[in-house]
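@channel anyone free to eyeball this complex?
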Amino acid sequence: MHDLLITDAEIYDGLGGPPVHADVAVQGGRIAAIGKGLGAGRERVSAGGLALMPGIIDTHTHYDAQITWDPMANPSPALGVTTVVMGNCGFTIAPCRPADRDLVMRNLTHVEGMSLAALREGIRWDFESFPQYLDGIEQRGVGPNVACFVGHSSVRTYVLGEDAARRAATAPEIAQMRAIVVEAVHAGACGFSTTTSLQHNGENGIPMPSRLADDAEMQALCGSLREVGRGVLMMTKAGSTPVAWVEDLAARAGRPFVVAALLHNNAAPEASFEDLEHIGQARSRGHRLYGAVSCCPLVFEFTMHEPYVFEGLAAWKPAMTVHGEDALRLFRDSGFRAAVKRELAQPARRMFNGEWEKLFVTQTRLPEHRAYEGRPLSALAADSGKHPMDVLLDLSVEEQLDTLFTGTLLNSDEEAVGRMIRDPNSLLSLSDAGAHLTFLCDAGFGLHFLGHWVRGRGLMPMQEAVRRLTSQPADAIGIPGRGRIAPGAYADLLLFDPASVGRGPARRVFDLPAGASRLNTPSRGVHGVWVNGEKIADAAGIAEGARPAGKVLREFAA
Ligand SMILES: [Zn+2]
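replying in thread with the prediction:
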């Protein structure tokens, strides 16, 4: 008697093979057999011809904090995701000395848009080292399977303390950081992550610690994976960081390297294609680089209380240290405005590039401003004869910064995004699930890919799309036995209807610690999600009383 039998399914194996109509038997958390007449099952699911694929593997999440109070990693499993990779961009919460906890939380709240109140109330600080962190989340249980990078900024803060965001490291400090990275990967980290992105700033606009690393430090820490012989490198790079430099780091380590975040930018429309081309050249030289791309437009919902979208501008710097009345004063200041407008007029590869026609007023506070709702800043500027930046700041100041805006910042050119997704050197990724919670929710990127890109736009055949969401990311990160439906593989499964699969509209919910809000999206066309053979979600979301059946992954391919 099998534990679970799913009958009458159209099976996509995750390896790119054509679909096969058959039954799947699960025993002890693994796939026991695929075929017909497989016998009886304690739990029996008739798929009625629906599609069955391996669960989605999300290689770019930031659940590191959330998973300590929410083992289910909401909402990812409800959106078909059975494995999450955390600790991207170098932002982990381990290792962390007790004295540095508040600093780490204040940086996280800024860089990843997590509510500070939620972090202070929510995080279970029952660890100091990275191995202790993995043990802690394993003991509490995890809903999806979890792999975790050890993050550069955490390691740097652990060794340099407050100086981590101020200066280069000394040789002994580099040696100490290197030992921590090696220890973490031996204990089960899936690799080492870092960032050079100008968008990544902590509290008061101070760069995230890893941005202070010099070449010697980057080479030592990335190169340390050669000594371990396993693990993946991951970097969110600044637009100006050359792929050749990343390739050199990959070569020193002899390990795969995920290069993020390749988002299409209308101000530099060829830049991400050039990166992908350089990544392809590196691959042809035997260096396993992957370009992390997204299938979602980067849509931010924000107020000027947290103007993250503008923080990649050098002229925005003074705004990052002021709050309350001081912020209002600065936003009124004509010198500040002039500097911002001047910089915006210079095309560059950054998050916001003056595409005012894609930035809308979503919700106003004052009744006399209601007519602005739903209108782009470009139109309001034309009506008033003002610069759109002045429109945005005037309106925000009048409303005590409560005006809600929605902007499509990057990845808005579908033709270009389709080309990037199809590029053989790209890795479908970048959901940022668990981060930017007040701004966006792309945790359902996989369902969006299957619905919008495959059904809607016919970008690629379903079997290839499924491969891109399952075995390809599993193999890139070196996760064994997952991302495929094959005898012996782990039974991480997603049952869905190809005719309706997708993600619903974003809604704001208030279920974080301290009542903080986040954006969420419902699934469409999801009929069941299993992790290691146990059902965790269905059409209504995460199943009532579902057990955290996931595993903390610690074994990765050499
Ligand atoms: Zn990230």
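from a first look: The chain has 16 helices and 24 strands.
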